[in-house]
Amino acid sequence: MTARRRPAERLVRAYVVTGGRAHPSRNTLDLVTLLIATGDLPPSGLTPESRRVTELCRPGALSLAEVAGRLSLPVSVTKVLVADLMDSGHIVTRAPVPAARPSDARILQEVLDGLRARL
To answer: Which of 59, 102, 110, 118 has its CA 20 to 30 A from that of 34?
Structure first.
């Protein structure tokens, strides 16, 4: 019987964690947005989940998806938490490093020719 209650418990927990809100205060968060704890502000007054987000992000940057996975929370709930932490100054975000553009074959050939000439 307890297995049937678990999905309902998770829904209630998500509702409580976000304070009943379904949308973050910012629409700039993506799954690959990197989160970094500032460490400037004390964690007093934060909910346990918010405090855990700052602890996870303190040693270095983590993506929003990684934080959601480590908290075992849906991404939508994690976005609300992170947006609140951004508003309070506990978290800063950074866009992920963009993928490198494909190199021009001509430039690569010149580099290869130069290396061969030196050997």
So the answer is: 102
Q: Do the Cβ atoms of 79 and 24 come closer than 8 Å?
A: yes
Question: What pLDDT sits at residue 6?
Answer: 56
Helix (H, G, I), strand (E, B) or coil at 34: strand
CB-based contact 17:47 (threshold 8 Å): yes
Rounded distance, CA 38 to CA 60, Å?
Answer: 10
Question: What average pLDDT values come out for the chain (119 residues) when binned by 10 residues?
Answer: 50 67 76 89 83 90 93 89 91 80 82 89
For residues 77 and 111, what is the distance between their CA atoms, to the nearest angstrom? 49
Residues in the chain, total: 119
Element (H, E) at 37: strand 34-37
Contact status, residue 31 vs residue 65, Cβ threshold 8 Å: yes
Model confidence pTM above 0.70: no
Tell me the two tokens of residue 30: 């993506």
